Automatic annotation (TrEMBL), chains A, B:
Domain of life, per lineage: Bacteria
GO molecular function: transferase activity
Stated name of the protein: Malonate decarboxylase alpha subunit
Stretch forming the signal peptide: none
Length: 549, 549
């Protein structure tokens, strides 16, 4: 006779063990480490909530203090490896195996620890892929999550940073795992129920908010004229001809520049209402001037952004907000929206090779992927047409025997300067990701966006339209043709590049009627964080690190 | 000064209008039609919940009775067009435009109405794609949904048929739309909270359960020996070499046969624990024998299946179940899991052309897609390796210059008999979907799975491995080579087909050591619905239409 309730009984045992340190669901914060030692077992699959924004930081700190002779070899399955404690637990042996998505601020240390063998790498995922595995083969046995507040029953309010929480909790709780939430306060009644109490097993009152990183704030003051030029190229050379209404912008100053050019340069081109109306996007402060100018119809958000809370509350037509008035974000649904309902993904990268493959791995850093692989890929399951998508499909295959069988293509654009931070060339013959794959004996190099999914590359030298390339050589020369004075750029076949330009595979600023001398900071709708605050009518409250007034 | 709360005020007006027919959130069922006339406006985007299983049937009926002079030209955005009322509203003019996914039982009538111009077609989507658009450009203004019960505050219990509800409600409610739920009963306390009350605006007590279609029940008695042969081929020719552990099965007798062969034929091949351990799957009754024999570790479900409720409750290690003991399904998450966390999708179709494109559109029927385009596509954003996925990638590109840059491939398998129901050939020179596209002047023919995503085709004549085909001609001959005595099959180039067989592009039963004479019904682990019930220890309670005892 098979036993069909091993997981349920295992959870019950953990519940009972945990209740030695709790009154009802409320765990004694003084005994948090002992509590974790009681509910965890060696080898557990654990999701310690954290992504590129919110962090269950109190629980992370406590987990880093558990007795490694009792709790060890955990298998961490979580979006972000961001806090020092996320890696401390691998150093101490509390954790051993890692499946994750993003590690921005820890990219150097995580690389060292991978090389040193302290982290056994499962895989680097795109967010939605890791969420998918929560329901199939990486269901957490314990989830340590973060919320703004809880009521006594355990209903949780996540506030604007809902992010991964509903997904992590659904997989864990219905998968018979244990859900432990740190909250900023216990209240009589939560402002809205983001997570119902019956999915939450324990609550810890941290008596302070969880940590949040303002990752999507770009100071307009730091935007260069070269970045403004790339933004003008993107708007006039891509947004206009494709008529891109539904899109996502990655992080970076180039796309921030696009956002700040919409109400100025974009207005002059008569684009208002014709492009950039519907977004899958975090609440970027640099989008405030475009929103205020009436460009934007609706934005769905992966997460929130520190300082944008009151602004979003005051713009309920634009943002998805709850009965409490604050944003409801949702990373899983927004990634799904980015995949299937957007016509364009445009973002930056650190390295692009001759085939158009890009990666954020450099010699000493493994930054992970976040959402880029998902949104920067052609959604082959997509079945609804749009003008932008159909046009891209026609360009890729102009002579299709049966046009009705020709799919469209997602526009996947890489934008950046030929030389990036510290004058490091963006274009390389060989991705550093390949060295990483060699060194760690990975089957798969950590490529962020594959060349066969990239449709355009934009630099200050021009736009390369890879959809129009008919073979590998053309593709390589199209890439070299916008790679400027990098080694890759200098090794171009000048004749072939000129030929590609005649075919509009490559378009220079002058081909688009853009004078690089016009790429002036005066074009930006805001020149500083303070301008953004003023544009918001004082509703945007920048974090102190961004204030100099 | 721009107005930023038009949607909120619009909802408030609808709320107030609706409250004339309600006590608190509870709508008077006698006044349901008048209530809908009060909360709806011409041109509204409306999601009338319904997919291939559960239906908000009371609300559908009421909507079909509203006064068309008051409520007309609605834009319906919903997974399923399944009930007669779903089309009645287009006939009367209450609705005009349609974005949907699936229309199985209404496939003939919907085709007639499209041809007749009574339905203005937006697009036919795959489920996850339509959900994605709920957050971008198809956010419902009103959602009419279905749940098992509600408490007085409006907390909803969906029971096992959670399905689309959380997704529809999240998009609608936080998008400032109005959510109206029909429930089977009002209770003091819901068994679990599937939808928190603050996302629900009105509740109608239908005093009976919503309608559910047992779409995923296949009677073993109806499985033919030809289907058993295709199942043997799939198991030995695909599941074994690729070592497929994480997968989805479509609907159909061929895959039902696979499920019923696991504990017999699969056991004999020593596959237990090596294949088919983790599933994105509805609770197929035909999987009961494999579950009982200990083959299955975990199943996440899109929806539920009528009669399987008690069985799932008694198998909590296998299914995602809630604190109330019953299944928690979730179509959005399960589709995501099917896309990103499964190595194989195997399903049937009605037509396959010479390029491997398949469609369920026939001359007079438009059945829609459901989940097949999503799960039957290569997830190009996937970044985690598995043996199955890597092997498929190697087969497609054996000579990659840089193996670490070679992605794997999702296994997308079409399985069926060369001649289907009514001896209609599955293989065609030209898809009927193309005629539909012509007739309706669609940019895009409604192709279910595109040939470039299909990796294998299995018929009783053998397996065609399209990954191994190096050009269009090889692909065409590989397809003809398993198309049997259909016209497509008879027009094969015999020499080329033999050559493909030498290269194992085509594998015949004998090439796999399978004697077609062994494809006997005695191999099935259950021969009838009653056997399935017995295998479940009486826990599976088949709907009466499947009972003949």
């Amino acid at each position: 006779m098979l036993d069909w309730n091993t997981k349920g009984r295992d959870r019950l045992a953990r519940l009972e063990a945990g209740q030695r340190f709790s009154a009802g669901k409320l765990v004694d914060p003084q005994q948090l480490v002992a509590f974790l030692e009681a509910i965890l077992k060696p080898g557990d699959r654990v999701c310690l909530e954290g992504d590129n924004q919110k962090q269950a930081d109190l629980l992370a700190k406590a987990l880093s203090k558990v007795d490694v002779t009792r709790i060890h070899d955990l298998h961490m399955v979580q979006s972000g490896v961001v806090l020092p404690e996320h890696l401390d637990i691998f150093e101490s042996g509390v954790a051993r195996r890692l499946d994750f998505s993003y590690s921005g601020p820890q990219s150097a240390r995580i690389a060292r620890m991978m090389f040193g063998g302290q982290i056994e790498l499962g895989a680097v995922h795109t967010y939605l892929e890791l969420f998918a595995r929560y329901f199939i083969d990486l269901t957490p046995q314990v989830a340590l999550i973060a919320a703004v507040s809880a009521d006594k029953a355990g209903n949780l309010y996540t506030g604007p940073n809902t992010e991964d929480t509903p997904t992590v909790v659904e997989a864990t709780s219905f998968g018979k795992g244990l859900v432990v939430a740190q909250v900023g306060e216990i209240v009589d009644r939560v402002p809205r129920v983001d997570i119902p109490a019956d999915q939450v097993h324990f609550v810890v009152d941290a008596k302070r908010p969880f940590y949040v990183e303002p990752l999507f704030t770009r100071d307009p003051a730091a935007i260069t004229e070269t970045q403004i030029l790339t933004a003008m190229l993107a708007i006039k050379g891509l947004y206009v001809p494709y008529g891109v209404r539904r899109l996502n912008h990655g992080i970076g100053f180039n796309t921030a520049a696009i956002e700040l050019l919409l109400p100025t340069y974009g207005e002059r081109l008569g684009l208002k209402g014709k492009v950039c109306t519907h977004w899958a996007l975090n609440p970027h402060p640099t989008l405030i001037p475009a929103i205020e100018a009436g460009w934007v119809e609706q934005i769905h958000c992966f997460g929130s952004e520190v300082g944008m809370e009151d602004y979003m509350r005051a713009r309920p037509d634009i943002f998805f907000t709850g009965p409490d008035g604050s944003l409801r974000s949702n990373r899983a649904f927004c990634q799904t929206a980015g995949l299937y309902a957007c016509d364009m993904f445009i973002g930056s990268t650190l390295q692009i090779d001759l085939a158009g493959n890009s990666s954020t791995v450099t010699g000493s850093r493994v930054a992970g992927f976040g959402g880029a692989p998902n949104m920067g890929s052609d959604a082959r399951g997509r079945r609804h047409p749009s003008e932008a998508w159909l046009r891209a499909g026609r360009e890729a295959d102009p002579t299709a025997a049966t046009p009705a069988l020709r799919r469209g293509r997602k526009l996947v654009v890489q934008i950046g300067e030929t030389f990036g931070d510290g004058m490091v060339p963006m274009f390389v013959e060989r991705l550093a990701a390949l060295d990483l794959a060699d060194r760690l004996q990975l089957d798969l190099a950590p490529v962020m966006v594959y060349g066969d999914d990239v449709t355009h590359i934009v630099t200050e030298e021009g736009i390369a339209n890879l959809l129009l390339c008919r073979d590998r050589d053309e593709r390589e020369q199209a890439i070299r043709g916008v790679a400027g004075y990098t080694e890759v750029g200098r090794a171009r076949d000048r004749k072939m590049v000129e030929h590609l330009r005649e075919r509009k595979v490559i378009q220079r600023p002058e081909d688009l009627g853009i004078d690089p001398l016009d790429a002036d900071r005066s074009l930006l709708a805001a020149h500083s964080i303070k301008d953004l605050m003023l544009a918001s009518g004082g509703l945007y409250r920048p974090p102190s690190r961004f204030r100099n007034w």
